[in-house]
Amino acid sequence: MMPMILTCMLLLLNHEISICFFKTNIVMKHKELIDAIADRTNRTQEETGNLLQTAIDILTSQILEDNVVNLQGFGSFELKRRKERLSVHPATQVRTVIPPKQTVNFRQSGVLKVKLKEIPSHE
Amino acid sequence: MSKKDAGDFIKALLTVIEEALLSKDSVRIKGLGTFKLQWNAPRKSVDVNTGEDIIIDGYYRVAFTPDAELRDLANEPYAHLEAVVIDEAEDGQKVKKEADDSDEIPLKHFDEQVTEIKDILSEINALNHTNDVQQDSGKEDAGKSDAEKSEPEKQEVIDQDTGESDATEQIADKPADEKPKGKEKNSKPEDRKKQTVRAESAVRERKSSESKDDVTKKKVSVSGSFEERSKKTPTSKSRKLDLLFVAVLAGGLLVYLAIDHKVFTTISQYIESYRIQKALAPDFEEPITPLENQDFDALQFDFEPAEFESSMEDKSDGVSQSRPDDLEQLFNQTRSYHDFIATEEVIPGSRLTRIAERHYGVKEFWVYIYEANREILESPAEIVPGMLLKIPRLNPVLADKDNPRCIEYALKLQEEYLKE
């Protein structure tokens, strides 16, 4: 009896957290992703987990070396530099220089864009 | 593992992500980031070649937000840099603000004067039931402090004596003004005359300080008229008594000094000059409102329009007037915080306003949290994650979220603190 109640509570909690972050949409988490890929490739979840981890490691290391990583049919990742800028605090009028910054940028491919157009438009 | 297997794996990965995205889900991958659909609303644009207006349809695009881990890794070469505050610009701003302040100084004097006059008024009301001699000197003292206030504000060149007579005049005004609603407009000139008469009598009293009995008699009559004219405000007696004692001491000292310097010998002269002034420049006394009211009226109207209107609305009951007065006193008290509801740790994204809204229900009351935490907060903008803010328990009358005046006052405080 107790375990059942506990799992129920956990499920509820999970649900609530996901609702908190994205109001309407559901988040697919790492584990669910692994499950889905494991189903597709007929591997165990452990295997797929390891594979995914290596794939991500390679991807990130390539990105961080300033290489453009292109995944065909999906998009490309690259490192982008944001320039420094001047910001003014709206209430106190204190002016601050925000330092330059590097971020990972994702660009969707044309194929994906076309596919996305098929989604029924915004309500 | 063969190349083919790896290729299949990547393909499977991408299709899974794609499918999730196509069903409007977002995908979070540990160590990489989150893929999310973003709706771009349709917008107007111009065709570059033809110059025609066209509408670009709304569309979904895939947005990618890197993980905190990946973000930090990517930003490593710039991680040591921090935001720098530029000072010179701020200095320029400060100079500007100071200029603004100097413009506002006369206004502030008005404000102070109004509040002070109110304080004195309530004191006098409380005094009516206590002994007369004390009242006498208390009143005189009040007149003096009032004179000091009114002098710079009105910019009258004459020295202290005129100020004093002016002040007595004002005091005489007050009880009359207490109930402006009770009076009819056409009775105003009459009142004016009465006031001047009373002012004169007050001055005469001072002159003949040796004939004390006479003075007390007159005072009794004056205070009697106070009683008639103003319905008494319910005040806390113990506090009033303390104030009264201090006022008596200070008043006695001042009177002694004044007699010592023989200023009263020339007082009649100044009364004359003052009367002439008043006759010549009535609009100087009522600078703002076109209404034919007395100057105290005008002041009150300026600073508490809400209160004034309310008293205009319900003409018959005195409660509505006495309550705002209490509030005004509450506002003027210096607040000290000993009783705290809670302490709150500042986390990134915390705002004083939000904390205030959570605890008091109204975000405007953040000023009180700020006041209670002045030791750690130098300015309202300087809340840093990790700080422990004390949340004070507020007087329910002061922090009444249904009372527009409380919020108005909080906003006034806010303005002051933001200027600092």
Strand-residue proportion of chain B? 5-15%
- Which segments of chain B are poorly predicted (pLDDT under 50) over 5 or more consecutive residues? 89-106, 133-193, 207-234, 282-321
Task: Assign an overall shape of chain B.
Answer: elongated
- Strand-pairing-aware structural class of chain A: alpha+beta
Describe this structure in words.
The complex is a heterodimer of chains A (123) and B (420). Chain A contains four helices and six strands; from the N terminus they run H-E-H-H-E-E-E-E-E-H. Chain A has a domain at 8-73 and 109-118. Chain A has 123 residues and is an alpha+beta fold. Chain A is extended. In chain A, the strands form two sheets. A three-stranded antiparallel sheet of chain A has the order 2-3-6. A two-stranded antiparallel ribbon of chain A has the order 4-5. With 420 residues, chain B is mostly helical. Chain B is 60% helix and 10% strand. A three-stranded antiparallel sheet of chain B has the order 1-2-5. Chain B has a two-stranded antiparallel ribbon with strand order 3-4. The longest helix of chain B has 41 residues, at 87-127. Chain B is elongated. Chain B starts with a helix and ends with a helix. The interface between A and B is large, with 58 and 59 residues.
